[in-house]
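Today's session is about reading a structure prediction critically. Students often jump straight to the picture, but the first step is always the sequence itself: look for stretches that repeat, for charged clusters, for runs of hydrophobic residues. Only then move on to the predicted structure, which in these notes is written as discrete structure tokens rather than atom positions. Here is the chain we will use throughout the hour.
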Amino acid sequence: MGPSSAPRVVVLAGGVGGSRFVLGVRAALRDRGLTDTAAALTVVVNTGDDLWLSGVRLQPDVDSITYALAGVNDTERGWGRNGDSERVNRELQEWGAGWPWFTLGDLDLGTHLARTGWLRDGSTPTRVLERMSHRWDLGARLLPMTDAEVDTVVTVREGDGIRSMHFQEWWTRHRATLEPVRFDNPGIEEARPAPGVVDAIAQADIVLLAPSNPVVSIGPILSVPGVREALRAAPAPVVGVSPIIGGRVVRGMADVCLAAIGVDTSALAVASLYGARAGDGLLDAWLIAEEDGAVADEVAELGIRSLVTPLWMTDAARSAALAESALGVAGI
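Below is the predicted structure for this chain, in token form.
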């Protein structure tokens, strides 16, 4: 990157934490006077929690990040469109269609119907997302992690046996109260990164792992064959932001997901899960909260540079400050 050129930033993200962080990165770039942030910022979005429901294709993480960047997201619920209604959803339930515990807003359904129509006409998820991005000035280029359908299946322990269900049923209906045994993305071994993903990583000045759920948001992205290899080969630093503050998850049930794969709910343990790029892992640097500053030396012992900084994204200014700290690690 030349001294006067805009930094090329790639973010791997999913979920509410990912949405807030991406907003912060865009704000940090704009605070630097960069007007065309879409040319500088690429977001690789988790599609592992996608699903078919009532004949339409849902992409929860894609939509959450799109709506957040467009400024039309429901910030109270953390998902869906602001000011949405649920008339069609109630009618679906009267017909016994869909899931009664999975609410689809009317405006949200409009998105799903448009997406499904384009998919049925032969478009790929990459082309569909590009088309969706034209509606609003998002200030970022969004890419799905893959064009393949690799929905997340959770195997849970129930009574004396085990059974499997879609991630959204476990997450939304059961609120992660059923003990997970494992998480799978059937077909991911044959999947490939979506067009543009590997090139964006190779050309980036910094790659950021958002403070998203390490298991079901970042994990599926890293499981797409070729993505992990692209990160390890990237000439730019790979910087992660801890989703754990003070030994607790900020939102959602990431602690349950981490326990299922034998990882403690701590900033140090998640850093170890990702690993150091100096070894066989991914991270060059790891941002940890002030509440977890005591483990900074232990993170460094893993071969990962640590930076202790405020991680709470309670408003736009704090999200931008966090993003600025992450960019600063790479000297950008």
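Discussion point for the tutorial: The chain has a mean pLDDT of 95.
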